Backbone:
């Protein structure tokens, strides 16, 4: 039985506690913490876990074999570094850290330790539809990929969500996806702000369009829409020389009646990516149980995505194309 400690039990922290308790086998949540200790107590009480007063205390707890970090992005680096220092596997929700400099410090810590401890929560890599999209492109039957059209539409976002978070918290998924889908790095990012949604405040760039240039020449356009209202709508279509491949409408039934057809649209990431979240944790827990290094998205992937979000912020604020320059990839993160 793997004993997991969870730091930060807000929206996704609670969902992962549920998953670790009721969905996945061979694991239990042994400790939780949150800056809101009442919230930590309520969650811990529901699953028979202990409450740690701080993240540091939870990481040091000998009853915690592995750590899940689901607090706010700006707090991730501190906990991930502490877990590496304690020699414990750590699953960190995206973004790995708030800046590429913080991510770089995490790379240095793993390189110093001589092994990987970190898996980053880029769960879309485990989504069956995205996996099929990727294998179709890689299979080559459609010819070389040229373009990708992507849309990331949230029904609404929490009140504390800032304009910058549309890049650091939302578009970070597309940056990782583009790198993974095309096995290529991102070279530059440009940000465009079309007519503002009437539901957005003056300084909130909703919608936002990012033009993402891959090093190999593929161009990815990403629509970020914060107030879609009708549902959580994640779209992706890759245009290749001899055809296209796209994510289909959500799984489920389609009803045809009176000359029209309709089907369900998910309401949020919990629903749309439930299978992907389960699969990413299965994969992570398998490596934890085996005492092996994680095989999922690495600290390098978290770092590369953060360099892209840094560039996206520069592009948004300067209204200029921002280039992406990565540090040299340490051997630890080179493909075997
Ligand atoms: P939230 O605001 O609902 O929950 C965050 C929790 O962390 C709160 O309970 C807060 O009190 C706690 N917290 C904040 N700072 C802390 C600290 N220093 N130590 C301990 N606890 C602390 O936020 P949400 O939506 O759950 O997001 C958390 C993280 O998960 C973010 O990094 C976000 O980007 C990521 N996320 C990932 C998703 C995905 O699709 N992979 C979906 C939603 C969130
Ligand atoms: C949230 O943090 C997530 O990661 C969701 O997957 C994303 O759709 C949303 O925009 C973010 O705020």
Residues:
């Amino acid at each position: 039985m793997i004993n997991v400690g969870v730091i930060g039990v807000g929206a996704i922290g609670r969902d992962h506690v549920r998953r670790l308790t009721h969905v996945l086998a061979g694991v239990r949540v042994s400790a939780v913490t949150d800056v809101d200790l009442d919230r930590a107590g309520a969650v811990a009480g529901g699953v028979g876990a202990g409450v740690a007063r701080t993240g540091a205390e939870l990481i040091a707890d000998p009853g915690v074999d592995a750590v899940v970090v689901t607090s706010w992005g700006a707090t991730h680096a501190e906990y991930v570094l502490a877990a590496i220092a304690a020699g414990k596997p750590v699953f960190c929700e995206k973004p790995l850290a708030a800046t590429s400099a913080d991510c770089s410090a995490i790379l240095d810590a793993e390189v110093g330790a001589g092994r990987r401890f970190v898996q980053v929560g880029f769960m879309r890599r485990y989504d069956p539809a995205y996996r099929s999209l990727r294998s179709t492109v890689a299979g080559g039957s459609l010819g070389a990929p040229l373009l990708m059209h992507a849309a990331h539409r949230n029904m609404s976002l929490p009140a504390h969500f800032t304009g910058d978070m549309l890049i650091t918290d939302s578009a970070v998924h597309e940056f990782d996806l583009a790198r993974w889908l095309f096995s290529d790095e991102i070279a530059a990012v440009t940000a465009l702000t079309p007519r503002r949604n009437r539901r957005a405040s003056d300084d909130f760039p909703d919608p936002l369009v990012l033009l993402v240039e891959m090093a190999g020449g593929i161009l990815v356009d990403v629509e970020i829409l914060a107030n879609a209202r009708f549902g959580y709508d994640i779209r992706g279509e890759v245009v290749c020389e001899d055809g296209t491949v796209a994510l289909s409408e959500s799984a489920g039934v389609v009803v045809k009646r009176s000359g029209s057809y309709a089907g369900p649209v998910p309401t949020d990431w919990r629903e749309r990516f439930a299978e992907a979240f389960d699969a990413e944790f299965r994969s992570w827990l398998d490596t934890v149980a085996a005492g092996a290094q994680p095989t999922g998205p690495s600290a390098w992937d978290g770092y590369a995505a953060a360099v892209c979000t840094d560039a996206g912020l520069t592009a948004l604020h300067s209204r200029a194309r921002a280039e992406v320059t990565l540090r040299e990839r340490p051997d630890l993160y080179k493909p075997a």
